[in-house]
Amino acid sequence: MKSRGDAEAWYNKGYALFERGEISEAIKALNVALGINPGDTKSWILVGNASMEMEDYETALKAYDEVLKKVQTDADIWVSKGNALFNLGRTEEALSAFQHALNIEPDHYYAEYCMNIAHELVTSPSP
């Protein structure tokens, strides 16, 4: 049986690969880490971020939802979820996620910025 230390080593490998731009390899390493420790929020966050880089918004959304099962008060995760939803064309849900982030952290400038862009898209007439 693999230990939590093994999960940490796989996370570290995934992080290093992500930083080097080897996104698909990073995701593979992170999936090994999550196979050992499925509740590791930092691995889920990095899977979400890496998936966003690869424009795999469904996987990113699933990853951020895994984090939010454990930590619902992290405004940054709500913004990340909102961005995944926005990129999936689910603008109303994205607005809700951005609002949730702002409820947690009212001065979160990026949440406000994303909210304004999404809101503008919803309220602007289509050409």
CATH topology of the largest domain: Serine Threonine Protein Phosphatase 5, Tetratricopeptide repeat
**Radius of gyration, whole Å:** 16 Å
Continuous helix count: 7
Output the structural class.
Answer: mainly alpha
Would you tell me the overall average pLDDT?
93
Per DSSP, what share of the residues sits in E-state strands of 2 or more residues? Answer: under 5%
Characterize the main sheet.
none
In quaternary terms, these chains amount to single chain
Shape: elongated
H/E series: HHHHHHH
- Low-pLDDT residue intervals, each spanning 5 or more residues: none
How many DSSP-defined strands?
A: 0
* CATH H-level homologous superfamily name of the largest domain: Tetratricopeptide repeat domain
So, CATH architecture of the largest domain? Alpha Horseshoe
Provide a brief overview of the structure.
By secondary structure, this protein is mainly α. It has helices at 4-19, 23-36, 41-53, 57-70, 75-87, 91-104, 109-123.
Keywords:
Serine Threonine Protein Phosphatase 5, Tetratricopeptide repeat, elongated, 127 residues, 0% strand, mainly alpha
What would you note in describing this structure?
This protein is mostly helical and 127 residues long. It has two domains: 1-63, Tetratricopeptide repeat domain (Serine Threonine Protein Phosphatase 5, Tetratricopeptide repeat, Alpha Horseshoe); 72-127, Serine Threonine Protein Phosphatase 5, Tetratricopeptide repeat (Alpha Horseshoe), CATH 1.25.40. It contains seven helices and no strands. The protein has helices at 4-19, 23-36, 41-53, 57-70, 75-87, 91-104, 109-123. Helix 1 packs parallel to helix 3 (41-53), helix 2 (23-36) runs antiparallel to helix 3 (41-53) and helix 4 (57-70) packs antiparallel against helix 5. It is elongated, with a radius of gyration of 16 Å. The model has no long low-confidence stretch (mean pLDDT 93).
